[in-house]
Design goal:
The chain is of the alpha/beta class and 542 residues long. It has three domains: 160 residues, Rossmann fold; 162 residues, Rossmann fold (3-Layer(aba) Sandwich), CATH 3.40.50; 182 residues, Thiamin diphosphate (ThDP)-binding fold, Pyr/PP domains (Rossmann fold). Helix content is 39%, strand content 15%. It has a six-stranded parallel beta sheet, with helices on both faces. The chain has a six-stranded parallel beta sheet with strand order 9-8-7-10-11-12, with helices on both faces. The termini are far apart. GO terms for molecular function: acetolactate synthase activity; flavin adenine dinucleotide binding; magnesium ion binding; thiamine pyrophosphate binding.
Length: 542
């Protein structure tokens, strides 16, 4: 076989096909098996960003994908490289991210004899990817196009491709690039039986409510949903990842739900009182066990989603399989305004939620979130890691735009905020990006501070430093157990940040914090603001 150094290598066909489908960013840790692929990506206009760990690289691609609205790419080397990425790929599956994973693989001619670093990639990933293929010279473009189609079909998720170094470097026998088809969405008609059914149920409902999720956000259903909510007087609850679908300063917004027992006490009671629940693009993968069967009368649940039903967390009496935006737009053309919720229960619930999560101390997690929300404003983008701070922030945060608060909400993996922030900033350098983390999460992936430095990304890291795995400590306490294995030593993160070439500072009051937030926005490199407080500040917080 002839090895090529021109632009018609198989690696170039792979890269050009990825580019034709909108991929503009690749993240990973290289190895000898993928050097030709990385060269092809760079030549095709897909720059490769070096991460310090493959799981972080996968989550960086997820952050970039959320902002770009397109699939993005993870590149790993053979064996240990791909194995390192398992957590990040599993996160992409449960977060519904159309992640394309390309791993190097030992050449077929030696694979049966050779054992060094050789594992069955497809078998390893089988439970956490939608499918896995090996790229062959004759069908490289078609295989990549198929992988992209599968990754972007609802529910979106990761797809894995193996590419051996010899195949990557071969002259491609087929230079055709498979481009994505022109797609047209269909609009539901007001004469459609499904629309007539739901419209009639809205017409007679006295206590309607909307529960919206990520799928509605992704298809840009927000404007139509706001119009529907205002027309029929329905309050809106969202999942954490759909925060901002209806701006949360809107009087009909009840904010996000999913993990807070205190919020659930209010919201689940309201849902039980309702007589119609419109679940619009709602994915229950984000919700805690308290939402398994969240109403006694399931007949009042109308589930509107284009994704196949893959759970049994609730059993809706009516299900409409269609794009949520199209259904909501059709409903807007067929319903009229009504006087609903005669006793004003949604307004009471909104006030109660405000009181539960109100800031009562001059310093601590509540005050930090308030100051950060003020600084980020409507244009800032915030990522948040798993932990106690995430639950509190997701309840207190006032999101006025969709995708302004990013997190791992289905998989809830730790050490997600920093790589999400890196990916988001790479995809949109114009937005100010904040990564909100706990000390435990940052210590898991502290090497990515070097990625921030090397990519010269002015991300602001807000560190909740309580010297504890606070959420686990709270769960131990609620179970009547001793606190074990949750105490963290005191790391000087400000010094660590400076050691990685960034700016680092410790703060212990709101005025210092506000000053440092403002200063960080004017700095060229990354800034780390370590906010120190005692973990007891979370007691009874959510």
């Amino acid at each position: 076989m002839t090895i090529s150094t021109n632009t018609n290598r198989v690696a170039d066909i792979v890269a050009k096909t990825l580019h034709a489908h909108g991929i503009r960013h690749a993240f990973g840790v290289p190895g000898g098996e993928v050097v030709t692929l990385i060269d092809g990506l760079e030549k095709a206009g897909i720059p490769f960003s070096l991460a310090r760990h493959e799981t972080s690289a996968a989550i960086m691609a997820a952050g970039a994908s959320t902002i770009s609205g397109k699939p993005e790419l993870l590149v790993t080397t053979v064996g240990p490289g791909l194995a390192n990425a398992v957590n990040g790929i599993a996160d992409a599956l449960q977060e519904r991210v159309p992640l394309i994973v390309i791993s190097g693989i030992v050449d077929r001619s030696t694979r049966a004899r050779y054992t060094h670093q050789v594992i069955d990639h497809a078998q390893l990933l089988r439970p956490i990817v939608k499918t896995s293929f090996e790229i062959e010279p004759e069908s490289a473009a078609s295989t990549v196009a198929r992988a992209l189609a599968i990754a972007t079909t609802q529910p979106m998720g990761p797809v894995h491709l193996d590419l051996s170094p010899t195949v990557a470097a071969l002259v491609s026998p087929n230079n055709a690039i498979i481009r994505p088809p022109t797609q047209f969405g269909t609009s539901a008609s007001i004469t459609d039986p499904a629309i007539r059914n739901v419209s009639e149920r809205i017409r007679v409902a006295e206590r309607p409510i909307i529960l919206a999720g990520l799928e509605a956000t992704r298809c840009n259903a927000g404007p139509a949903l706001e119009h529907l909510a205002e027309t029929i007087g329905a309050p809106v609850i969202t999942t954490y990842k759909a925060k901002g679908l209806l701006r949360e300063d809107h009087p009909l917004s009840l904010g996000g739900a999913g993990l807070s027992p205190l919020a659930d006490k209010v919201l689940l009671a309201l849902l039980e009182k309702s007589d119609l629940v419109l679940m619009i693009g709602h994915d229950p993968i984000e919700m805690r066990l308290g939402w398994l069967d969240f109403v006694a009368d399931r007949s009042k649940l109308v589930d509107i989603s284009n994704a196949p039903l893959d759970h049994a967390m609730h059993h809706a009496g009516t299900r409409i399989t269609a794009e949520p935006r199209a259904i909501v737009q059709a409903l807007n053309g067929s319903v009229a305004g009504r006087n609903v919720w005669a006793k004003g229960e949604p307004g009471v619930a909104r006030e109660e939620l405000g009181q539960i999560f109100a800031t009562k101390a001059a310093w601590g997690p509540h005050a930090i979130i308030d100051r950060l929300n003020d600084t980020a404003g409507s244009e800032g983008l915030v990522t948040v890691d798993s932990g106690a701070h995430r639950i509190l922030l997701s309840q207190k945060w006032v999101a006025t735009k969709p995708f302004s608060l990013l997190q791992s909400a289905g998989f809830c993996t730790m050490n997600a905020a920093l790589p999400l922030a890196i990916g988001a900033k790479v995809a949109d350098p114009s937005r100010r990006v904040f990564a909100v983390m706990g000390d435990g999460g940052l210590e898991m992936g502290i090497g990515e501070l070097a990625t921030l430095r090397d990519l010269n990304l002015p991300v602001t890291i807000v560190l909740f430093q309580d010297r504890s795995l606070a959420l686990i400590a709270l769960k131990q306490a609620s179970a009547g157990l001793a606190s074990t294995g949750v105490t963290l030593g005191e790391t000087d993160f400000a010094a660590v940040a400076r050691g990685f070439g960034g700016y680092g500072v410790n703060v212990e009051n709101s005025d210092e914090f506000s000053h440092e937030l403002e200063a960080a926005g004017k700095r060229g490199g990354f800034s780390l603001i370590a906010c120190r407080f005692d973990a007891s500040a979370y007691d009874g917080a959510f």
